[in-house]
UniProtKB/TrEMBL annotation:
PANTHER family the UniProt entry points to: CONDITIONED MEDIUM FACTOR RECEPTOR 1, GERANYLGERANYL DIPHOSPHATE REDUCTASE
Domain FAD-binding: 5-293
Chain coiled-coil ranges: none
The organism's place on the tree of life at top rank: Bacteria
Originating organism: Pseudodesulfovibrio nedwellii
Xref: NCBIfam families: GG-red-SF
UniProt protein name: Geranylgeranyl hydrogenase BchP
Gene3D superfamilies reported for this sequence: FAD/NAD(P)-binding domain (3.50.50.60)
Amino acid sequence: MTKKYDAIICGGSLAGSAAGFSLARQGFRVAILDRAEFPRKKLCGGLLTWKSVKLLKHLFGETPDSLADIDAINHTSDRYAIHSFSGLLTKGLMPYSFHFVDRKIFDQHLLYKAQNAGADIFQNMQITSSDPMHGVVTCTSGDTFSGRFIIGADGANSVVRRSFPHIDRERMRKFMAPTIEIHLDKNQFPRPIDDPELYIGFMEAGYGWVFPNRDKIIVGICGLKHKNANFSSLFKNFLNFLDIKSQNSSDFQGHPLPYGNYLETPTHGVTLLAGDAGGLVEPLFGEGIFFALCSGMYAGESVAHGLATNTDPIPLYTQRLHQQIIPELKGADRLRWLLFRSVKLFGPRTLRWFVNAANSPLAEMVHGMRSYSLLRKKHWDF
Ligand SMILES: Cc1cc2nc3c(=O)[nH]c(=O)nc-3n(C[C@H](O)[C@H](O)[C@H](O)COP(=O)(O)OP(=O)(O)OC[C@H]3O[C@@H](n4cnc5c(N)ncnc54)[C@H](O)[C@@H]3O)c2cc1C
């Protein structure tokens, strides 16, 4: 039997929870479908910037303190360091702290917020196909869901996106970056570390990171595949450089990260894509948490407006994306090519020069206080 809703949300992670919460709190009938059972593991560094904190407060009423109370945030730092093969390039103080979330707890908490607002949650519900024109979603269980609108929030390998005819699949594939991450106990890392560290020069068009948490250290790399042939051996080299011993390749975990393949019109028929499903990740540092929450909220609010006024939500969604999100992704994309090419031509020290010369504006861009587009002060619409 087909279950009928105002909106079907495919994926119950950040974009899905933000969309579901936005719709359900306005009284619309929403189903959120996810193949996983929460809490579930999600590969991620978990770094939150200022704009994510601002959005979490605006949308969910959450603060760093309320998230720390439930252990969703478990580390905070207002410093950073950037290294290359030859040592420390630069380090500094940020205008606002970075917060680090445990995605297992964070994602479940936001999903339950959507549920408490009235959304129906279907876990262990794997979507196999969706009809973007007629709002029908089918699942491996044999269940079928129909809605006046679908929001595809099912991540980088989105099944919903596959049903879109107009996607440039070659560009999508080319700029889908592999990542590898491991989570270490603090005592497995060779030295004490309290602040996030980035590592450049180990690969082309990519970077490595070491993010401290309260009880663990997250070490990872991401970069464009067509520029970096053997990802696993690059990661081993990185671990060796960090002096991290005895890690088996079987402990390495990978997940694709949209890295410059954002869709400018992530919509088709009655379907809107949000978060990684639409490639909406900042292509310099790979920040996706904020963009998933923000695009999920925009998608949910646009559909709510369309349902309330019996109008097409797609123009409103597209307008908000193009006013707020797309200029940031484009600006970060331009900056990354400038930096990656400069590092390739002139070596990692170029980055030290750049970061030292543009320290304060760059830090404000990372946090979203200043726009990647033309360096203006950023005015978010929330
Ligand atoms: C290694 C790594 C490190 C990262 N570090 C950071 C960081 O430090 N800071 C940051 O801001 N961003 C980071 N990101 C990016 C960030 O994790 C993503 O951008 C963000 O999780 C996107 O959220 P989302 O809701 O769009 O998709 P996801 O979080 O990927 O969620 C998609 C959901 O859809 C479900 N799903 C998928 N397919 C189906 C299906 N067929 N049927 C039903 N359900 C389905 C999944 O179970 C999942 O719950 C990192 C990413 C990676 C890979």
